[in-house]
Amino acid sequence: MAPPAGQIRPAKYLASFVLIVVALYALVFFTGNGSAKPKLGIDLQGGTIVTLTARQEDGAQPSEEALNRARDLIEVRVNGLGVSGAEVVRDGINLTITVPGADSEGAKGLGQTARLSFRKVLGQPIPAAAAPNTEAPSSSTPPSSGASTPPSSGQTASPPSSGAPQGRPAPNLAAQPSSTPPSSNASTPPTTPSAPSNVDPKLAKEIQEAKALRQATDQQILQQAALMLDCTKPDPLRGNDDLDKPLVTCGEKGAYKYILAPVNPPKEDTQTKADDFSTYSRLSGEDISNAAANKNPNGTGYVVNLDFKSEGGTKWGKFTAANVQQAVAVVLDGEVMSAPTIQSAITGGSTEISGKFTLPEAQSLANTLKYGALPLSFDASEAQTVSPTLGLASLKAGLIAGGLGLALVFVYCMFYYRLLGILTILSLALSGVIVYGVLVLLGRWIGFTLDLAGIAGFIIAIGITADSFIVFFERLKDEVREGRTFRSAVPRAWVRSRRTILSADAVSFIAAAVLYVIAVGQVKGFAFTLGMSTVLDLVVVFLVTHPLVALASKSKFLSNPKLSGLGGALREGASHRAGMSGKSAAAKEA
User: Fold this and answer.
1) Residue ranges of domains in the chain, CATH in brackets
2) N or C terminus: which one in the chain shows less Cβ crowding within 10 Å?
3) Which residues, 6 or more positions from 42, have their beta carbon under 8 angstroms from its beta carbon?
4) Could you give the CA distance from residue 545 to residue 557 in angstroms, rounded to a whole number?
5) What is the pLDDT of residues 347-367, one digit of tens each?
6) SS3 of residue 298 by DSSP
């Protein structure tokens, strides 16, 4: 049988709170790296600065629109929900990223263009362990068998050549009167068109040479390019490869080299049917609707699960159906992340990228793919470590301010509410226990970092939480003044104060939510902590404060007016009733 309105079973509510705390700290200590410390922001622990320099395929000056778009995308990648405390500042064609902590590699990775594509693997991967050739062999002579073993003719599917016959002498790709394809260290580089004054000629030459050799339409040149490719050197084609041409590239970790088919049919190829997926996947990052990092169900490490849009899922199903027992390379910015063999047609619009990722690597890749590709390619500078901008002194000042605020609240509650004041202190302490656990988990899950603005949000939240207690206790005093006992006053006071508490917290939460949406930088962190503390305040008031007051009201010792702090309300009520009785008697005599 349910208790009357306002009356509860305190043990049930307190047990629910204990279960929440146990579950919360089980996640804190038994998930992630086991660290029980929240992440700190740049102003408290320092950080890492990386400068990204924009570059375009032709070496021209990037446009304002492309730079601003890249800055916005990187800010979303690095800041997630806007609570990690990271900063992205544009300086000319450079973007300066400051992230909390010393994760220099993670900061550099923020500048990857994240252009994802799916390419069919032509032949077998070529081991990259052998030293690459430094001179291009003659185009009319096949590579010798003593070099890194090229794909055999029985295994290699010839890439489309846009009408160029296979096996003929290498075409003059750079408009030179030489039959030797350009080498990365050739003394006579291919001529390039005259460039405007703001073009970097060295960069444009490197990209053009790499494209001419590694994205040729002749199979023999591609095989030569694979033998010449050095996977230990920076790749000028990173993020600049042409999706309409074949590609010779390295795998992640640089263990293998791959010859890959084009993503799309060449624009001049009018004979390829629109439904022909035997060679062309026609799939890129624009066909992805979502990406998430998950634990590898088939082994150790983590994978990135991709969900395709409706049209992308249809393409993926057709491509896998047409290439059963063939390898497909998942290519990110011109680098093969993984190249699994298709065992059967994959339907449902989902797939995964497996590359023996760690959790941070998988999460970084998933976020990068989910938030979109950058419109530019970037070169990252060396990472620099910066000291805290405000330092431990500011942190101590903030903690002292919070401690003084709590102390004043405690003194006031003990003086004015006595036993109820002790319950207030206990409730605030338990609220702090929950807040701390949530901070640790949010730091792991969404990259939340605690800075001085966030600490200010928590200090203000102390007042909001104390207000909820005061509303309840003052309503309780009103009931006692009307002549009710402590025990009978608790359910009536709770019913009447509950709506006020909910309304006040709703207003605070809406204000915090609006501030979070329109704010930038550290103000977002302040709004986030304020809103989070408001929600946790409701948890504590409903599951701890009210049940504890109900338990105290049922104890003869604790309900003693001298201990409960309700003696004054009893005297005021008795005096008021006596005065009313005197007035009533005088009225009768009159």
Assistant:
1) 10-39+391-580 (1.20.1640.10), 116-196+207-360 (no CATH)
2) N
3) 85, 86, 87, 98, 99, 100, 386, 388, 389, 449, 451
4) 19
5) 777 888 776 778 877 877 787
6) coil
What span, in angstroms and rounded, lies between the C-alpha atoms of 116 and 317?
Answer: 17
Q: Is 327 left (phi over 0), alpha (psi -120 to 50) or beta?
A: beta
398: number of CA atoms within 13 Å, CB side?
19
pTM above 0.90, yes or no: no
Burial class (CB in 10 A: 0-12, 13-18, 19+), 60: middle
CA–CA separation, 523 vs 8, rounded Å? 40
CB 38 within 8 A of CB 440: yes
Which of 444, 471, 439 minimizes the C-alpha distance to 455? 439
| φ and ψ at residue 120, rounded to 5 degrees | -70, 135
Question: Which of 191, 160, 188, 200 has the alpha carbon at shortest distance from 173?
Answer: 191
CB 333, CB 113: distance < 8 Å: yes
In the chain, the amino acid numbered 357 is F
Return the structure tokens found at 129: 């362990």
What is the distance of C-alpha 8 from the center of its chain?
A: 41
Residues of the chain with pLDDT under 70: 1-7, 33-34, 56-59, 80-85, 102-109, 112, 129-201, 203, 268-270, 355, 372-373, 382, 389-392, 521, 564-590
Per the CB < 8 A criterion, the answer to whether 279 and 319 are in contact is no
CB 533 within 8 A of CB 541: no
Is the Cβ–Cβ distance between 126 and 226 less than 8 Å? yes
d(CA 55, CA 380) in angstroms, rounded, equals 11
Spatial separation of the C-alpha atoms in residues 213 and 247, rounded to whole Å: 9
End-to-end Cα spacing for the chain? 52
Contact of 13 with 541, CB cutoff 8 Å: no
Cα angle 218, 224, 230 (rounded to 5 degrees) comes to: 130
DSSP strand pairing (288-295 vs 302-308) = antiparallel
Cβ contact 389:100 at 8 Å: no
Main-chain dihedrals φ then ψ at residue 13, nearest 5 degrees: -70, -45
Tokens describing residue 119: 């390419």
Tell me the three state secondary structure of residue 118.
Answer: strand
In whole angstroms, what is the distance from residue 499 CA to residue 6 CA?
A: 12
Question: CA 461 → CA 138, 432, 451, 509, 530, distances in Å?
Answer: 75, 11, 15, 11, 6
Average pLDDT, the chain: 75
- Residue type for position 54: A
**Max Cα–Cα distance, the chain, nearest Å:** 130
